[in-house]
Recover the amino acids of this structure.
């Protein structure tokens, strides 16, 4: 099993999983909050229609975790309030 680095911690993933799937499999169902109300957000639609699962991947902000394939060694930063 390979790993991505999320907020400085290793998170295992299985080949073919998205970053969102790897996070949920690791027990993280929310990884950011909204600006208004600090409401938790994670994967919602799972198909790239909504923007609830936004995070930063290898320095590129605003990535939808459900659409980004996990790959060994990628660096992910969560907790950013990119909308609302």
């Amino acid at each position: 099993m390979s790993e991505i680095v999320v907020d400085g911690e290793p998170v295992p993933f299985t080949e073919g999983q998205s970053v969102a799937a790897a996070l949920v499999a690791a027990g993280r169902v929310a990884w950011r909050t909204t600006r208004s109300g600090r409401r938790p957000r994670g994967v919602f639609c799972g198909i790239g229609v909504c923007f609830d699962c936004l995070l930063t991947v290898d320095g590129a902000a605003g990535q939808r975790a459900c659409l980004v394939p996990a790959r060994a060694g990628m660096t992910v930063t969560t907790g950013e309030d990119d909308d609302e």
